[in-house]
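User: I'm writing a short methods note and want a consistent example. For SPRY domain-containing protein 7, I'll paste the sequence; you return only the structure tokens, no commentary, since I'll be parsing the reply automatically.
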Amino acid sequence: MSNISVFCCLKGCLEGFKFNDNVPNIPKENPIRLDTTFMGYEVVIVKGGQRVCGAGAALGNAPLVQSKSYFEAKVQQGGSWSIGLASRQTDLSLTQGGMDEHSWALCSDHIIRHNKKELFKIDAGDTTKQIILQEGDLIGVSFDHIQLKFYVNGVELDYSVSNIKGTVFPAIYVDDGAIVDIILDNFIYPPPAGFEKIMLEQSLL
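Assistant:
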């Protein structure tokens, strides 16, 4: 990625930030965020580990170990993006999720992928339940160690992914100017019944 691309990426990522003295009281920070030690070398993470842009993948810093986990991601700027789960063995230089055996993702081209295979294509032909992924969308992800499910603006998709084994983390892939924010608490849409935000392993004891 060129220096100009990095500058544009940072400019877009930081847009809306104002540095002044009128800073409101901020509640205790969630220790779970995107992990700068597990991201592609052309990826930029800002906003306290909540925003990703550039080109490549970024993983969360905590695995989904509890029985029912949920998180959200907001597409702040369009481009090519994928949202889902991955193990730390995934290739972080990939710009699309589901392109290796270690990742499972809903992609911006309406396809859920794993291991370079198209598992499902979101049906945009049914006008009664038409879903067109676009800038501003809120993608929800739930995982109960049996099924991985996706939600678009609070609507559950009719597709689920199973046979996910091993330790997995939230995963976001970006390219072509996409900017995505991960939301790990204070969700925009209520999680499905029984699902909760991702918790650190020690807090489950």
